[in-house]
Specification:
28 helices; ABC transporter involved in vitamin B12 uptake, BtuC; mainly alpha; single chain
């Protein structure tokens, strides 16, 4: 009854919101009479409300199914990557097969959702370990999100209307979307209810279900199909809305509801309440301007995911904290010169070739090359070095192979902080952006330390906390983008990370900050070597482990925050470069720092070069190029490690 009352209350509020303002009393009294209020309600606001109720309920019901099928309290259409796969399919069809999208939008989204689900199930393994499933879904989401953003940038005209929709929006101009989605959702919910008792048995365990004569494979097939259908139809009508399927089922379980039929019914109701409430809050925050409702649900869902991640990770076996690497390192006398030569060659090629013709060294002094191309290449190299050092130090101090500023949410919140300074304080000069980035990045670090320090900075817990913070930071950035009314292409470039249009002044600032921080990073390498052997041994040799960890974390986060403030949210460099370096020079942190730095610079310069030359005159942000390389590598790393 509480859920029904809340749904009725927030529905009245939702119907009264909009540019044509009227009170709830006027709504109740005048909606029955022909006129302005009745027309607005029946043709625009009521379709929006109904599709919100259906979409929220569908996502919540799918969350119940996914959590049971994977035995994973973190499972939902968003955390499993199903939403991102469906949205990628829609964007892909909009670019290459627009007629298909117009006629078969649901089938297109359904195909993308099925493809993503297959990827997750294959990569997560037969055991479907909850943490492994969550991490696999996160990486799949990063991969498909990068592919989607690349298509949106390369085909801006074809996908121009999909940016807001891709962040989730309930805008409905008529009843067509509701009429299309309602039969799919109603039939899928009825089928899910019919499977309720069988799902109750499956929840006891597959062995128990089989011993009771249940065909578990057939049941799973039907349940997966129903869950994917519910998620796909929502994406095809209102776009990507996350976390409803995560939050609603847990609220219902906290209330004390048991049994899958009751869980599905009550989750449907609470999912509707959450989505309509989020939509109402979004419209209240920015009257007359649409803030993506998906961003609003992420603001709530991010902290909720942190809570669930904390509970889930505590139940997992700790395992050994191992970073991997070679026991037969290559001679540093050979590695350093080779990487230095590769760096020089890569920089020379980037200076000389712009995608159309080669320029001689004499032509480097021409205005276009000297003022535009050379600064961006130098920025790319320095930032790549800084991100690599940041990742190397994070992995060393946390002894966590998944530690990287992008994975831990530091990049995302750093980007949100920089953008907040840029948008909320427009009178401040751009030089203040690093301050905002540093504040946001340190906020992420503080949250991770508070939540994970008592558990010994358990790698899985830290990674799951990072996933939550990334979602929260991305939601803030989306809201700020809409609030500032930024051009879609410019917003996507910032969200993806790009070295475009950098100046000599920015090169100078980044280089000075890098030179100031580098000696401290070099000084800390000996302490990180000691920590690698364990806290007790390091302490017995006179090292203040707590202080060393704190200083190293502050240094690494500062490196990352400065990089984000100048090039946007570029990720994976801090993950890829140290892992590659560790397989070349081993575990000692000074050679690891030097090798990682050179590899990070080479990677980002190469990504920038590929991004601006492969599809001339169009550009792919270097952050997307790195993500398209980094996500598959991260999947490989997750598949290889236990």
């Amino acid at each position: 009854m509480t859920g029904l009352f809340l749904l009725f209350f927030v529905s009245l509020i939702n119907l009264s919101q909009g540019q044509a303002g009227f009170t709830i009393v006027e709504l109740i009294t005048d909606v029955w009479q022909p006129g302005r209020i009745q027309d607005i309600i029946l043709e625009m606001r009521l379709p929006r409300l109904v599709i919100g109720i259906l979409a929220g309920g569908a996502l919540a019901a799918s969350g119940v199914l996914f959590q049971t099928l994977t035995n994973n309290p973190l499972a939902s259409a968003s955390t499993l990557g199903i939403n991102s796969g469906a949205f990628f399919a829609v964007v892909f069809a909009a670019v290459f097969f627009p007629s298909w999208l117009a006629q078969f939008s649901f089938l297109v989204a359904f195909a993308g959702a099925v493809l993503t689900t297959i990827f997750v199930l294959i990569l997560a393994g037969k055991e479907l370990n909850p943490v492994r499933v969550a991490l696999t879904g996160m990486i799949i989401t990063l991969l498909f999100s990068s592919l989607t953003a690349a298509l949106q940038l390369l085909f801006e005209n074809e996908t121009g209307g999909l940016f807001l929709w891709g962040s989730g929006t309930l805008i409905q101009m008529d009843w067509s979307g509701t009429i299309f989605a309602a039969p799919f959702i109603v039939i899928a919910i009825i089928l899910a209810l019919l499977l309720g008792k069988s799902l109750d048995v499956l929840a006891l365990g597959e062995d128990m279900a089989r011993s009771l004569g249940q065909s578990t494979d057939r049941l799973k097939f039907f349940a997966w199909t129903i869950g994917i259908t519910l998620a796909a139809v929502v994406v095809s009508v209102v776009g990507v809305i996350g976390f409803i399927g995560l939050i609603a089922p847990h609220i219902v379980r906290l209330i004390g509801i048991t049994g899958h039929r009751q869980l599905i019914i009550h989750s449907f109701l609470w999912g509707s309440v959450i989505l309509i409430t989020a939509d109402s809050i979004a419209r209240w925050i920015q009257p007359g301007q649409e803030i993506p409702v998906g961003a609003m649900t992420a603001l709530v869902g991010g902290p909720w995911l942190m809570f669930l991640a904390y509970k889930t990770a505590k139940q997992q076996k700790r395992g050994e904290k191992t970073l991997g690497g070679t026991k037969k390192p290559v001679s540093k006398k050979l590695v350093y010169p080779i990487l230095a030569v590769i760096s020089i060659i890569m920089i020379y090629v980037s200076f000389s070739y712009g995608g159309v013709a080669w320029a001689s060294v004499d032509e480097w002094f021409s205005p276009i090359i000297a003022e535009f191309r050379i600064p961006r290449v130098l920025i790319a190299f320095i930032v790549g070095v800084m991100l690599a050092i940041s990742g190397m130090m994070l992995q060393g101090v946390l002894r966590n192979p998944l530690a990287d500023s992008s994975i831990l949410g530091i990049t995302s919140l750093g980007g949100a902080g920089a953008m907040m300074f840029l948008i909320l304080f427009p009178s401040l000069p751009a030089a203040w952006m690093p301050v905002g980035a540093i504040i946001g990045a340190f906020l992420a670090l503080v949250v991770i330390l508070i939540s994970a320090w008592r558990n010994g900075l358990q790698p899985i817990l830290v990674a799951l906390m990072g996933i939550s913070l990334s979602a929260f930071g991305s939601a803030i950035i989306q809201i700020l983008v809409v609030k500032a009314d930024l051009v879609v292409a410019a917003a996507l470039v910032w969200l993806s990370g790009s070295t475009y249009a950098k100046t000599w002044d920015e090169v100078q600032i980044v280089f000075i900050l890098f030179i100031v921080l580098l000696p401290l990073a070099i000084y800390l390498t000996r302490s990180l070597d000691a920590i690698a052997f364990g806290d007790e041994l390091a302490t017995s040799h006179g090292l203040n482990v707590y202080r060393t960890r704190l200083v190293a974390l502050i240094t690494s986060v500062t490196f990352s925050a400065i990089a984000v403030s100048f090039v946007g949210t570029i990720g994976f460099i801090g993950l890829l470069a140290p892992h590659m370096a560790r397989r070349i020079v081993g575990f000692n942190h000074l050679p690891l720092l030097i090798t990682s730095s050179l590899l990070g610079g080479i990677l980002l310069v190469a990504a920038d070069f590929i991004g601006r030359t492969v599809l001339v005159p169009k550009e792919i942000p270097s952050g997307l190029v790195v993500a398209l390389i980094g996500a598959p590598y991260l999947l490989y790393l997750l598949k290889k490690t236990k």
